[in-house]
Design brief:
By secondary structure, this protein is mainly alpha-helical. It has 30 helices and twelve strands. A four-stranded mixed β-sheet has the order 3-5-6-9. This is Chloride channel protein.
């Protein structure tokens, strides 16, 4: 075509000539600028390497933004990460139907977790209640028709049980009767006594052995550690699967052994373990420690819900007593989890009375204004008992930690169990389980009651409804019961001090309630008999006429239980609601409120810390209580580090520190993070980088990025620093840098700093003056300063 068309041929010739000239010019250009082009391509390759690294860091590598064991989380950081995650999901939901479905699943994941927590915690609570009921009775005898039946269940199925002897049936035999054929006599009593102690020792030995070998974190109540974890502290394994399994099994064994402890506190720990287990199924919670703690707060509510059959009280307990951060949506979800847990437990019906707890009662007599005086006196007793118990128990636990006693936990448990069983068996009120004791003390004496506490002298001419029996003179059974209850009160007060804190699951709610219920029942009977024999006194004349049902001793027992529990734990609102849900009566709220407030006032007069806060201080956990007041006139410069004569603050520069320098700094120090400054001369603050993130970033960069060596420069700026061509590839770590760390000036009052740490959940804050870094204040520094101001040992705060 070109040969036939001269015009086209000329165009081809011109194009060829231009192409040859362009090649010649390109060759000359490359020849003249070889060195310059070499440097240019080196820079391009370096920039590409940095770009690849940034792409790599944009994808979260394993364990980034996680925390080391026994360290505190950064609440602001976790909140920011969750906001970014939610914003990303919201923007993606507009792209396709699948992304919209994923966003809806993410929104509903919280309610799914609450449902699962409620179902599992309710089921476990029901199983624990059934197992404890059976194993407690196993210490005294066995059901011949079905060995897995408790005493009450065994006699339910018997057709030969009479109403008067409803606790006796041929199918249930005590061990002495089963072995020797004799149910009565000194020999049978001694044999039953011996086997009771033997069973108790066996149960407690199994409990402490399982805890020590398989799950050391399964011991104790768990509430002090739960409070600390919810405040942002990391204790790896405390809410793990092994802890859940062992705590559930050993809780049954410990309660069945007859020790002065309860299962209600450990049930909170069990429920939180369930919450942590289900958090691992959803990345929304497993990868964000702040969101995980919202779930754990709701799980704590579910735990109290199944412990006392009080869903509303459980929510308030979580809000008042254990939670550190409790947003409104957590309140709704806590309510839902507590509801599901209570419904599940009600479906299991472990006590066979269609109630959620063993000691549910209903009273039919109103209280009178004059009774507020004994109610308030019971509140005073509860406050004094709480103070005595806290001081004695903390002294004993401190002795356990600092002496040889702590090295022999198995021997301690065996010794306390042996003493408890030896002293408890002769007294019928200490031999039975504590929950059954509280149930009997709470009960109102009706016409169908056969307890010694209801052995009154009846008027043969009385013809009244069953629920309206008038006050009557006490019979010999009542006076005998009073002596036994007095001995039981002294025994419970002393033995509980040594029991709580041993290396087995041990709750404090039930023992405290038992002490108060015993004292309250004694006071109630005394007031009842005074009203009967001295009804003409001025204090009784207006409201207690002869033949009237004036005083309910069971109500005094309930008020005393609330007072003692409040004195030990310093709970108020949640305590009143829990006790109200136990009784099902609105009209008894005022006596409960009076006793709870009085016990708190009396106990606070001797010390502000409840039992759980005292154990937190004893263990040195970094818990910053929102109820503590700081009124001292100190400044941030008085608390910050470095102090005078201390080495300078360990910092990183923005673009002049090598990988080797960073690794050396990490190796030689144990700080949680490092401030990043412009240069060591100017000390102008750029940001803050976490130690763990720094370690993981360098480790991953060495594995996946070519050219990163010990002499590589680490830079935190947007653009790479100008480096000689012979330098190795630099490492860009701007993504892990917190560009907005919380800062205060050196003249900020410590009162403000403490308030900031409480309300924002800070891990640390930096102290500056006109943008220049002066020092750092950590949560540990704040706690030690507060301890020092209160004339306490600042070195007792052991964790970061």
């Amino acid at each position: 075509q070109a040969k036939r068309d001269p015009e086209v041929s000329r165009y081809w010739q011109v194009a060829g000539s231009l192409l040859r000239r362009f090649r010649r010019l390109l060759f000359i250009f490359l020849s003249l600028n070889f060195t310059k082009m070499t440097f240019l391509f080196d820079n391009v390759s370096e920039m590409n390497g940095a770009g690849n690294l940034m792409d790599f860091l944009d994808e979260p590598f394993p364990d980034v933004s996680t925390y080391e064991d026994f360290h505190t989380i950064d609440w602001l950081r976790e909140k920011s990460r969750d906001t970014d995650r939610h914003r990303k999901i919201t923007s993606k939901s507009k792209e396709s139907l699948w992304e919209l479905i994923k966003s809806l699943l993410d929104a509903w994941s919280g309610w799914v977790v609450m449902l699962l927590i409620g179902l599992l915690s309710g089921t476990l609570a029901g199983v624990i209640d059934l197992a404890v009921d059976w194993m407690t009775d196993l210490k005294e005898g066995v059901c011949l028709s079905a060995f897995w039946y408790s005493h009450e269940q065994c006699c339910w199925t018997s057709n030969e049980t009479t109403f008067d002897d409803r606790d006796k049936c041929p199918q249930w035999q005590k061990w002495a009767e089963l072995m020797t054929g004799h149910a009565e006599g000194a020999g049978a009593y001694v044999l039953n006594y011996f086997l009771y102690i033997l069973w108790a020792l066996l149960f407690s030995f199994l409990a402490v052995s399982l805890v020590r070998v398989f799950a050391p974190y399964a011991c104790g109540s768990g509430i002090p550690e739960i409070k600390t974890i919810l405040s942002g502290f990391i204790i790896r394994g405390y809410l793990g699967k092994w802890t859940l399994l062992i705590k559930t099994v050993t809780l049954v064994l410990a309660v069945s052994s007859g020790l002065s402890l309860g299962k209600e506190g450990p049930l909170v720990h069990v429920a939180c373990c369930c919450g942590n287990l289900f958090c691992s199924l959803f990345s929304k919670y497993s990868k964000n420690e702040g969101k995980r703690r919202e779930v754990l707060s709701a799980a704590a509510a579910a735990g109290v819900s199944v412990a006392f059959g009080a869903p509303i009280g459980g929510v308030l307990f979580s809000l008042e007593e254990v939670s550190y951060y409790f947003p409104l949506k957590t309140l709704w979800r806590s309510f839902f989890a507590a509801l599901v847990a209570a419904f599940t437990l009600r479906s299991i019906n472990p006590f066979g009375n269609s109630r959620l707890v063993l000691f549910y009662v209903e009273y039919h007599t109103p209280w009178y204004m004059a009774e507020l005086v004994p109610f308030i006196l019971l509140g005073v007793f509860g406050g004094l008992w709480g103070t005595l118990f806290i001081r004695a128990n903390i002294a004993w636990c401190r002795r356990r930690k600092t002496t040889q006693l702590g090295k022999y936990p198995v021997l301690e448990v065996i010794a306390v169990t042996g003493i408890t069983a030896l002293l408890a068996y002769p007294n019928p009120y200490t031999r039975r389980s504590t929950s059954e004791l509280i149930s009997e003390l709470f009960n109102d004496c009706g016409a169908l009651e056969s307890s010694q506490l209801c052995d009154y002298v009846n008027n043969p001419n009385m013809s009244r409804p069953v629920d309206d029996i008038p006050d009557r003179p006490a019979g010999p059974g009542v006076y005998n019961a009073l002596w036994q209850l007095t001995l039981a009160l002294i025994f419970k007060i002393v033995i509980t001090i040594f029991t709580f804190g041993m290396k087995i699951p041990s709750g404090l709610f039930i023992p405290s309630m038992a002490v108060g219920a015993i004292a309250g029942r004694i006071v109630g009977i005394a007031v009842e008999q005074m009203a009967y024999h001295h009804h003409d006194w001025i204090i009784f004349k207006n409201w207690c006429r002869p033949g009237a049902d004036c005083v309910t001793p069971g109500l005094y027992a309930m008020v005393g239980a609330a007072a003692c529990l409040g004195g030990v734990t310093r709970m108020t609102v949640s305590l009143v609601v829990i006790m109200f849900e136990l009784t099902g009566g609105l009209e008894y709220i005022v006596p409960l409120m009076a006793a709870a407030v009085t016990s708190k006032w009396v106990a606070d007069a001797f010390g502000k810390e409840g039992i759980y806060e005292s154990h937190i201080l004893l263990n040195g956990y970094p818990y910053l209580d929102v109820r503590d007041e700081f009124t001292h006139r100190t400044l941030a410069t008085d608390v910050m580090r470095p102090r005078r004569n201390d080495p300078p603050l360990a910092v990183l520069t923005q673009d002049s520190t090598t990988v080797e320098d960073v690794e050396t700094l990490i190796k030689d120090t144990d700080y949680n993070g490092f401030p990043v400054v412009v240069s060591r001369e100017s000390e102008r603050l750029i940001g803050f980088v976490q130690r763990r993130d720094l370690t993981l970033a360098i480790k991953n960069a060495r594995q996946k990025q070519d050219g990163v060596v010990s002499s590589s420069v680490v830079y935190f700026t947007e653009d790479a620093p100008q480096l000689p061509a012979s330098n190795p590839q630099p490492l860009k770590l701007r993504r892990i840098l917190n560009l907005s760390p919380f800062t205060v000036t050196d003249h900020t009052p410590m009162e403000t700093v403490v308030d900031i740490f409480r309300k924002l959940g800070l891990r640390q804050c930096l102290v500056t003056r006109s943008g220049r870094l002066l020092g750092i204040i950590t949560k540990k520094d704040v706690l030690r300063h507060m301890a020092q101001m209160m004339n306490q040992d600042p070195e007792s705060i052991m964790f970061n």
